[in-house]
Design goal:
The protein is α/β, with parallel strands linked by helices. Helix content is 33%, strand content 17%. It is built from 7 helices and 8 strands, in the order E-H-E-H-E-H-E-H-E-E-H-E-H-E-H.
Length: 232
């Protein structure tokens, strides 16, 4: 399976040397940098804000920065991340009173827009905003903490969303990425890809094992080797 995107989540990185960590995973073959932004309100954890995004840009990171907002309300923080250098900003429909308006806000600041669906969130909301979406992110764990195990029922949801995206693309010619976040590892990424994902967030599977299996290059290489088997 070609053209897959691997986006390591810095939630599992060593924050004492974050710039070096990000440089290392990008040099090892990662495509994007994934930001998990938590506010201790929408989810029971507190992580990072736009200053960290801006700092990485000033550090010299030019790769796409994929910002996943687990905050409520969401509209207030969107412009700050856009100005800090975000490439794509995704949010949860539960965190916005007006989902379409939030998507338009993201797009108005020059970023790509994504909608995030929790494990128990129905997929019907996509039907009303897909014309403006660049990405759909399916959570394969409950949001809030890294290192959780992949929820198997996500595969069923992935197939359903993949079918809707493919039907929309066949009709319009417009592509929408399908991203998965939570418990993605070497031993399940092929199955996740076969179910329809094309963009993969991996946190502890990458940053949690800096010295194992040939370092970051070995881990990312193993992920790509598994993806290459899909469709053969």
């Amino acid at each position: 399976m070609s053209d897959c995107i691997i986006a390591p989540s810095i939630l599992s990185a060593d924050f004492a040397r974050l710039g070096e960590e990000v440089d290392s995973v990008l040099a090892a073959g990662a495509d994007w940098v994934h930001f998990d932004v938590m506010d201790n309100h929408y989810v029971p954890n507190l992580t990072i804000g736009p200053m960290v995004c801006q700092a990485l840009r000033k550090h010299g990171v030019t790769a796409p920065i994929d910002v996943h907002l687990m905050v409520e309300p969401v509209d207030r923080i969107v412009p700050d991340f856009a100005e800090a250098g975000a490439t794509c900003i995704s949010f949860h429909p539960e965190a916005s009173r007006h989902v379409h308006r939030t998507i338009q806000l993201i797009k108005s600041h020059g970023c790509k827009a994504g909608l995030v669906l929790n494990p128990a969130t129905p997929i019907d909301a996509l039907d009303w905003v897909r014309e403006d979406l660049d990405m759909v992110l399916l959570m394969s764990v409950n949001p809030g903490f890294g290192g959780q195990s992949f929820i198997p029922e996500t595969l069923v949801k992935l197939r359903a969303v993949r079918a809707r995206i493919d039907a929309y693309t066949a009709r319009t010619g417009r592509q929408i990425l399908l991203e998965v976040d939570g418990g993605v590892k070497v031993d399940n990424i092929a199955e996740i890809a076969a179910a329809g994902a094309d963009t993969f967030v991996a946190g502890s599977a990458v940053f949690g094992k800096p010295d194992a299996d040939g370092g970051y290059k070995g881990i990312i290489g193993s992920l790509r080797d598994q993806l290459a088997k899909v469709g053969q």
